[in-house]
Write a structure and sequence with these properties.
By secondary structure, the chain is of the alpha/beta class. It has helices spanning about 5, 45-55, 110-130, 145, 170-185; strands at about 15, 25-30, 65, 70-75, 80, 90-95, 150-155.
Length: about 210
Amino acid sequence: MSYLLNYNPGTPQYTYPRRGGARLSGTCIIHTAECAMDLDGDDQSAETCARFIANRADYGSYHRLVDSDSIIDMVPFEYEAWQDSETNNWAVGISAAVQAGKWHSIPNERRDRIYRNMAIAAAEFVRHMAGKGITVPLIRISGAQARARVPGFCAHGDSGISRSDPGTQFDWALFFRYTAQALGGGVTPQGTVTAPAHTPDEQFFIDLSIPLP
């Protein structure tokens, strides 16, 4: 089960069905969570951020949250998350648990693994939309296109609100290259995600070593 469907004691961070009868358009917003980054040993950035989101009193959530060794399914793609006020109704949000201005401060190997896990999440979304008859091209779209429900990938900072993530240091070419590889089976998930301490026997992770339907 998705993380927030199992654990969300704070302000509700999703709704289902999507408001106004909206349906997924194939639009994906790319974020950075602006959380503290864990740069040593096991990467706990995404797990720490997920707990914060679940317990927060205000609104802010994603569909997928990744770090260098985790891919967290926060809510199903068909649910509406509070990830971008301009496109919430029809888009999904994929976020890296990093800070937009500090991509270059992340050790190279760890940074590469973050991009790979973002690509895994993006490939999952592309496959999900393909199952609905919608092709999501591996292109960066503008904020205007995202607001017009055009399929593709948009920076949160382009979506029309006062944001700048995933930042000028974000390597779109690398992200799209790894996503293409993931769609072709050339990228495997970088680790798994364990559940919060209050449910030690459960796991929240995406296994994309097998093709998605």
